[in-house]
Design goal:
With 540 residues, this protein is α/β, with parallel strands linked by helices. The chain is built from 23 helices and 14 strands.
Amino acid sequence: MENFSFLLRKDILDLLNKRISDFKEGYRQNVAILGNELIGKTTLLKTFLNDISDQKLVPIYVDIIPFEFSLFIKRSMNSLLYNFLKKSQLVSSRESLDILVKRSKEFLPQTTTQIEHFLSKLEKEKPEILFKELFAIIESFSGESRKQCIIIFDEFQNLKKLGIKNICQELGKKIMFEKNTLFIFSSSLKNEAKEILANDLSLLFGNFETIELQMLNPANCDYLITNELKGIAVSKEFIDFLINFTGGHPFYLKILCDEASSECRASQKETLDKDTLSQTLEKLLFNDWGIFNLKFTTFLSLVTLNRNKNDFVYLLDAISIGKNRLKDLMSYFRKPRTELIAKLNRLIELDVLSKNGSFYCINDRLMSFWLKFVHFEKLNSLSPDYTEQALHFRSKIHAEIDEFIHTSKKNIADRMLDLFNLFEEDDIQIDRKKIHLSPFKELKIISFDDTNLKIGIFGKAQDSLWLAAIKEDGINEHDVNEFLKSLKRFKHKTINKIIIGLGDIERNARLLAKESHIITWDIASINNLFDLYGKPRIIK
């Protein structure tokens, strides 16, 4: 990942560099970067740090570990002095804090004296007082060195686990008054991080730019896959399958491709085929010592640390096999509604699940597949024979690959028709708009003659009509106007009007559609729907 992280996240790195440029000009915009675990936040931050060449800027990078206040303090001081010295002389990143203090004395007599005094009472003074003094030292350093600081707290939500009461509120005061310091936070726990920003740092919310690090787009996934396979040929079908299977998670793709590349070379194959791909997934996901199997097993044990842990595991298993609505779960477990909602809400708080209308989704796409094909299958297997279980897993993966390839070859109208056929009495939310779904009494593909839209879907529910126009490329104002004209032949009190586009939807087209009460669905919206119903995504 490090070799081409710049290319994969160039837009975010450009934005961070813009914030640096603004900061030097006197305009400070603090940044919070949120994203799933192992999505590349730390790699991104370290790439960004390595690119800072301005002699007047000194970064302070600290990866915050829970319950380690003393370590947090020492790491902060270490990073400050190391990055200061690095600007002017050779210095080893492995040198102790004591050595860094001694080497800095010549240049920073006032600050180093403060640090020595500070460290001498590290084990005696209250953490609340030391936390305040830490920022006093950083402020003193800026004045003495005439340099500006960039403080980067990786996994900043762990500050609340350092044993200091109201630490985030105290930090908020420092951020407000430390005008000579730029703050960049990152977090893998998006919900908790957003709560801290909105509540504990509420006075600063407008001063923090929040960036949610997304999964890689298909083009970047393609680039990563072909690079990591190291000369092993791979078909477009398999690339798309891997993107669908991992959700575009860079770490998962890298590990999968590295292992697949090794498997191919061991078998003297120049092309990745279905058998090798299945063997790779078996090794990583199914085998007891597989990297993904160990990761997800450990994750489950940490998430479910309480006396009802099995209830959470069974809930996740059920959601992974398609029991992902409250009514499905109530029927499956025969448990009271309030009891299930409480457990589901807890999993949402932990960023394991997210809720969309009537549906619950497992946020980590690969973990969802692992729960479905490994954890649930092993838990319910009637045979203790490991070899038989492995063969069963491999056959399931073969079927999953075949289904993905078969479905991907269908045209978009047929895929949307299949999706509409799954609608029941449920609610969904797309682009902040709530939509009530109903089963259809009549559903068919229709033509929009003499228009660029050409094809669509007509659906008749109990008390409404659904009319969806489908376009395989972008949507513009002209398309919206044509759709409006085509609707005149349909008479009904309630019509759900939708334009589905696989390309970009122009801003003016969105505005016109909104004014005309037309719903616009782009490829992300469609894939969101496919996810809710457990169907393969469209990779484009």
